[in-house]
Amino acid sequence: MSIMSTAYDSEQQLDRLLPEDFPWQKQEPHPDDYSISSSPIEPQLVYHQYRGRHNRLWLRLSWRLAAEKFAAMSFILDTGAPRHLYLSNKALQVLEEAQLTCVSDDLDIAYVYVLGRKCLVEAAPQAQQPANIIGLEMLKRLGVQLHDAEPHVTFEKPLPYIGPDEL
Prior knowledge:
globular, 2 helices, 12 strands, mainly beta, 10-stranded mixed beta sheet
């Protein structure tokens, strides 16, 4: 896994994602996000911070859409997000087109399969668009471990990609 660290100073409000929250210096996904390939990208952890304000941990990896079909995506790792996954409109579109999203009519909720289990998925709030967010419940399921030194985050098991049948 490659590691990248960035820093940014800002006096702006922290109640929504701002352009400075994105390590690519624009309020948009990574330029290669949602590109389709026949193999997964190498997972990359991006440690991005506002000096003196707050830190963001980003994880770039691929979502397995089908056999030999992967879409690169970036996720904020957010322990303050109580649900499993919050996905941008574009990420939801990609998963829906691949027929990976399911809806429970009884509960009126959407879910995907990750690590062989159902995983609640919601659209990212408008203030968080266009980011994808891995919330606390999914971080626990992935066995996230935090470290003071690089790489700052590791997972209990290798995570070469995410999707319905990995590992």
